[in-house]
Structure formats: C-alpha cells, structure tokens
Design a protein that fits this description.
Structural class of chain B: alpha+beta
Largest sheet of chain B: 4 strands, mixed
CATH superfamily of the largest domain in chain B: Glutaredoxin
Strand content of chain A: 5-15%
CATH architecture of the largest domain in chain B: 3-Layer(aba) Sandwich
CATH class of the largest domain in chain B: Alpha Beta
Strand content of chain B: 5-15%
Oligomer: heterodimer
Largest interface: A-B, 60 and 44 residues
Helix content of chain A: 40-55%
Largest sheet of chain A: 5 strands, mixed
Structural class of chain A: alpha/beta
CATH topology of the largest domain in chain A: Rossmann fold
Chain lengths: 586, 159
C-alpha cells in the first residue's frame, strides 16, 4: 500500500484560467505547513471543463475522489477532511471518471494519458508504456509500419480525412536523401482546443508518434508548427523534447537503431491561413504564409523544396496506440471507412462542456445530449456548429448523423478539426453565418480574387440582411456566389469559406426570410432589428438607468422607467442588469 | 502617453544565436517583439541587414502576420476573445463594457498608456466563454461586474 495520499490537479490552460493555479498553490502551502503526507501533481486536461478547477484525490487504499468547481478555500477543507477526519469533503465532491455518465460513452485513445500523468515528467509517460511502441517500430521496416497504419484506417484528424498511411507512403516513395516531417499544431479554428490539450496533457505521445512516422517515411528532421498563442503547450513541448533527447528517443542513433531524427518547434505568428499545409511551410521558411498551387504536392516538393509529410497533432498522437494495440483493434473502434476515435471540443450552450473523445460513428445526439447533458438552462436546442469557419450548422433533424467524414459532409457540415459549438434558440443563424464569414474574410491571404473579393461581397450581403436592408434577391446572390468562391480558390480556406452560409441557408432559410421580409430577428440578436422595452413590471430601482452607457433610460426612482429609442444602441445591458426581468426584446 | 521608447542600440549581439538564413526571420521578429512589445522600424532594418534581406521584405513578412505590431503597446494588453463560443455567449457585450470602462476602442491604447485593447480570434478556453486575457492571465465566465472588478484590480495596482 502506498503511504501518501495522491492529489492530481487539472493543470491545462482551461483549468488554469478557471483558477487551478491558485488551488495548487493553496494545496502546496497547506501540505507544507501541516506536514501532510500528500504527494501533489499537476496533470493535463481531465476533460471535464465544466467542473474546472478540479482535483482528483486517491487514498493510500486506492479509493479515489473527484472534487470540482473549487474555490481557493476548498483546498484546506478537502485536506482537513481526508487527513483529520478520514472522510471526504461532501460539498464539492463530484462523480469521478469511473462513475460519471459523462465518460461512459467516451473512449480514450488520444487522451489516454491526459489528466492522468504529469506531462512534464517523462517517467510517468514511460510507466504507462510510453515509447514502447517506438521500440517495436524501430525493429520493423518503414513499409511494414505504413501497412499497419493503412490497415488501421486512421485518417487525417486535421479535418480533411486523407488516409494517413497512404500519405506516408507518398513521402516514403519520394526519392530524396533529405525529407521532412511536420506536425501541424496551428490550431486556428475558433472554438477548437483539442490539439492544445493533447500537447499540454501528453506531449510525449505526440513526439513518439512523430519519431515512428519519421522512421516510416525516412525523415531525419521534424518540425512542430504550433501557435504562439499556446504558451503552456510550447513550454511543455520544449521540456518533453529535451527529456526525449536525453533518453535517446530523439537525436542521433535513436535507441541504438541507427536511425536519427530530431525535432524543432516553429512558433506560428497569428495567421489562420498557415494551417493550410503549403502556407505553413512558407511560414517555416520565413516567408509570408501564402498557399501555393498543388501539384507539386508536399510529398514531392515540400519544405525547402524537399519531400515533406504533414500530419495533425491528433493523428500523430494516435500512432503509438495503434503500433502497440494493432491495426485491427483500432479499426474496430470506428466505422468501416474510418478507424479509431475523434476528440471534440464541446462548448457553447451545452450543460457539460469539455474535451470529449468518442469512437468515430457516434451520433451528434449522443455527444450533445448523453455526454453534454443537453442545453444549459431551459432553452431549446437550435443547431450545432462543426468545423469552425469551414464547417456548418446542423439542425435538430440532423442530430442522428454519426460523426464521420462522409456523413457530416453529406449533411452540409464537415468533420473538421473537432470544434463543436452548441447553439440554442437565442442564437441567430444569420448572425452566426456573418460571424464566420467576417472571420474568413479577415483571414483570407488575398492571393485568390474570389476568396479575397467574393467573401467580402458575401459578407456585405449578410451585413445588409442583419441590418434590415436585405432584399429578396440577396439569397439568390449568395447561392450564386458561393460555388464560384469554392471553385476558384486555391486552398481550403477559400474553398470552404461559403460553407457556414450554405448550411444555414439550407436548414434555416426561414430565419433569413424573416430578416428580409419582416425586418425582424426571431432570436433577438441582430441589434438593428430589435428594440428593448421596459414592461409594467418595472419597480423603478434605477439600476438600468445607472448602467446605461448612453444615458438612454429615463425615470424617477420608484416609478416605471422608459427607454429613449433614439439614443438606445441595443447593447442589452438593461436586460442583463434588471433584477425583476422587466426588460423585453421585441 | 507615457510609453518609453526602447533604445535603438545595436541588436546584432542578440541575433548571433540565429543562423543567418531566411528561416530565422520570423523567430527573430518574435524575439524582438517579445522584448519591446512591438517592432520598431530601425530594428526591422537591422534584422534585414543581418539576414541580408531587404527592409521592404522584412516589412512585408511582418505585416502579413497578425502577431506583429508596429506601435508601442500599453502597459497591459487586453485580448478579448471572439471565438465562436464567446460570440454566442456575448463577446460583443464584453467588448462594449471594456471599451466604455476604459474609454478606448478596439486596437487602441488608453490615454494614460495603461491598457491596449485587442480582439483575438480564439483563446481556446471555450468552456469559460465569454473570456478575455490580460497579459498572461485568462479571465472567464465574464459578466459586466466581473470585468469591472478585474480592470479595477489592475488600476488599483498602478494607483
């Protein structure tokens, strides 16, 4: 039996933002001051973002307790209960991994170690069979590994879903002494944080996957292109790379196999388009990150003109598991054409948001309602957005769609990198389409006319519609312009930019029509189409008039207030601050 | 404005860690910005001469990437998240509140040089939406009152 109580603090970016650092410090302080027999560890994302900050406590006897939504003072109380009174601290006790239905339909492959091990300690990764797959892979010929990956039906998790083994074989077959392997960690889709969490929670899984991939294709230099906006991920990567080098998992003559491979980290500089592989390579080369036409494909002529293979974080982090457990076991998890699991960042108006990993083929309904427990509050589900600016919004009628590359594309969305934002009746679909187009229009590199100007024109139409100046012909214009942008853009950014508009038009045309024909926004979002009014219920507390930033609310204390519509900017502050819900949107 | 201009010393010594190759350009610019908060014009020229790249090319690369700035920053940088989750949970209201509390619009620095306000595409803390980041700290589940409290804390520190 262990002597110490073990406490693991969820210490990924989301946890820290929710207050994990303060909890950790308090625990550390209490343990030190009272000389408690406790070992304290920082772990990566546990996946239950809705309960952050959280800790897991394991007794010497092996019983484990999970505490969530913690505040600083809880740290001392939890320790006192367990050590002084030998009981749990009921107030903040939440169901743990074993008995929480949030986890029951999830399956952890990519996130197998996240939230369990200390990502800054290679020993902990090694204790969980880390780098064992590398040892096995180095005994095999590269072509055998590629066959294994082909058999596993692993497909690119960056979104496009190209079969990974096939991609590797292109790079392997390219004739050159110098080849590169790049890991694309430029996770730019708003609403996506899977790759960051994988790196923060289990960086060695990515490195191990990269070394195996490099051995399979014959690359001796690797790059991880990671967003500069991910400081913690970058820090953990550089620690992991140093540790791997010191153990001979990276560098010259890896594990005495004769194979050499090393990894450099390139920090992205905030251009969304650099998630596209040809633009990403330009960026590593020190150029403006503008996409170029293919062919030549990176496998023939990539980084610095040499054959290059590019894979996403999640794809590479799956590789060690496949090597250890076999292609068949991986394939059996997923569907006929697509093996394994997919990680989703579940967020928005869902009750239990977080990082979820499910077998490919799981339905949207299971993810949103069984895992996410449905919509927060008492609102109705309206749509789920997948794939960020390249994806689409699916309505209730499509909730039985299984998450798989083909089925989601047929439904009008895409698998994408894994952002899944749930929307309720208070979200306006025209506004959401405008939001995404505004994003792609801003991020277009400007090379292709249709992407540069076409998205701008579409955005202008949407701005007209949301400000009440839309015309009937506008919908036709959007439908006509969209395929032109798709056809005449060089890279994925432009080719998929119209998607958010097309799917909302497909499933929510009536909402567009209401904006155009009736000049109203049914969800009450588009500022120029809504009016705030104070009802008879007003108690004259003056809160709203004090909070109004443009002094648009008049009224004496104790009597009903009135909004001056000429001054009102529809910011909604009054509705938010009213203590008796006397403000309405019409 | 009380923003201090960095001294335009010779930065060559700092650059020697980087190979004199084109691929060093972005890492060097990131380092310069890290240290000075923005890319002063004469620094860009020096970086160009170290790497044998025309200043216009350096400028062309720097302006392509959203990370790089050409104006000095306020003491604290506020990044308001406009990711999808934040958008549907009221990022516009967060923006309104921050702007009206500080009297500075998006992209601007307050007159006292204390804060610069920026809009970012996504901080990746979607479960805490709406969120913003001040310097290195993320603040989530923002409400009007919470934003005011946070800003007040920063002002108090300086006061």
């Amino acid at each position: 039996m262990k002597e110490n109580i073990e406490i693991k603090v969820g210490y990924a970016s989301c946890g820290i933002a929710a207050g994990a650092a303060e909890i950790y410090e308090r625990l550390e302080q209490e343990i030190e001051e009272n000389d408690y027999p406790v070992s304290l560890t920082k772990v990566g994302c546990v996946g239950m973002c809705h309960n952050e900050p959280l800790i897991e406590l394991e007794n010497p006897g092996g019983t484990s307790f999970t505490y969530g939504n913690l505040e600083e003072d809880d740290a001392g109380r939890i320790l006192e209960s367990h050590i002084g009174k030998n009981t749990s601290y009921e107030d903040k006790l939440i169901p743990g991994k074993a008995d929480y239905d949030y986890f029951s339909s999830q399956q952890k492959v990519v996130l197998r170690n996240s939230g369990i091990i200390d990502p800054e300690e290679i020993e902990e990764y090694l204790d969980r069979d880390g780098y064992a797959a590398l040892g096995e892979a180095l005994d095999q010929d590269g072509s055998e590994i590629i066959q294994l990956i082909k058999d596993s039906k692993l497909r690119g998790r960056g979104g496009a879903g190209f079969p990974t083994g096939v991609k590797w074989s292109f790079a392997r077959d390219a004739g050159s002494d110098q080849k590169y392997l790049i890991c694309n960690a430029d996770e730019g889709d708003p609403g996506a944080f899977m790759d960051r969490s994988v790196i923060e929670g289990d960086p060695h899984a990515l490195l191990e996957g990269m070394v195996i991939a490099a051995h399979a294709i014959g690359a001796d230099q690797g790059y991880i292109y990671c967003r500069a906006e991910y400081p913690l991920a970058l820090k953990r990567l550089s620690i992991a790379i140093e540790q791997a080098r010191s153990r001979d998992f990276l560098g010259n003559n890896i594990l005495d196999s004769g194979f050499s491979f090393d990894i450099d980290v390139s920090k992205g500089a905030g251009a969304f388009v650099c998630g596209e592989e040809t633009a990403l390579m330009k960026s590593i080369e020190g150029e403006r990150g503008m996409p170029s036409s293919r062919p030549p494909y990176p496998a023939q002529e990539g980084l610095f003109g040499q054959p290059t293979n590019i894979n996403n974080v999640e794809t590479l982090a799956s590789v060690p598991w496949i090597v250890r457990n076999g292609a068949e076991e991986y394939r059996e998890i997923g569907t006929e054409n697509s093996g394994g699991t997919k990680v989703f960042a579940l967020a928005g108006k869902v009750e239990r948001g977080g990082l979820v990993e499910v077998p490919i083929g799981t339905s949207l309904e299971e993810i949103i309602f069984d895992i996410g427990n449905g919509i927060e509050g008492s609102k109705d589900f309206k749509a789920v957005q997948l794939g960020g600016p390249s994806g689409g919004c699916l309505p209730e009628s499509q909730l039985d769609t299984p998450v798989d590359y083909e089925t989601l594309t047929d439904a009008g969305a895409i698998m994408g990198s894994g952002g899944m934002i749930v929307m309720d009746e208070d979200d306006c679909m025209v506004d959401v389409a405008k939001y995404f187009l505004d994003f792609t229009q801003e991020e277009s590199c400007g090379k292709c006319t249709f992407c540069r100007v076409g998205t701008k024109r579409m955005l202008e139409i949407l701005e007209r519609i949301t400000s009440g100046e839309g015309e009937k012909k506008d919908l036709e214009k959007l439908r006509k312009l969209a395929p032109k942008i798709e056809e005449h853009s060089l890279c994925g950014l432009g080719q998929t930019a119209p998607n958010p508009v097309l799917t909302t038009l497909r499933y929510f045309e009536d909402e567009y029509a209401k904006h155009i024909e009736e000049g109203s926004c049914p969800a009450g979002v588009c500022r120029e189409l809504i009016t705030y009014r104070i009802k008879d219920d007003c108690i004259g507390c003056t809160t709203c008039s004090q909070e109004c930033s443009v002094d648009a609310i008049d009224g004496e204390s104790g009597s009903r207030h009135v909004i001056n519509q000429e001054k009102c900017i529809q910011c909604g502050t009054c509705l938010e601050v009213c203590p008796v819900d006397a403000v309405e949107v019409v | 404005m009380v923003i201090k201009k960095p001294e335009t010393k010779d930065i060559r010594a700092e650059l020697e860690d980087y190979p004199r190759e084109r691929r060093s350009l972005i890492p060097i610019l990131q380092k310069v910005q890290n240290e000075h908060g923005y890319l002063p014009r004469d620094f860009m020229e020096k970086v160009g001469s170290y790497l044998s790249i025309l200043p216009s090319k350096v400028y062309s690369v720097a302006t392509f990437y959203a990370q790089f700035r050409f104006e000095p920053l306020g003491e604290h940088l506020i990044k308001i998240c406009h990711g999808t989750a934040c958008h549907v949970k009221g990022a516009d209201n967060v923006t309104d509140t921050v702007e009206s509390e500080l009297g500075a619009s998006m992209g601007e620095t307050t007159d006292d040089g204390q804060f610069t306000v920026e809009r970012v595409a996504c901080l990746g803390c979607c479960s805490l939406a709406p969120a913003m980041m001040i310097d290195d700290t993320v603040y989530g589940n923002l409400t009007r009152d919470k934003i005011r409290d946070v800003l007040e804390d920063f002002r108090g520190e300086e006061g």
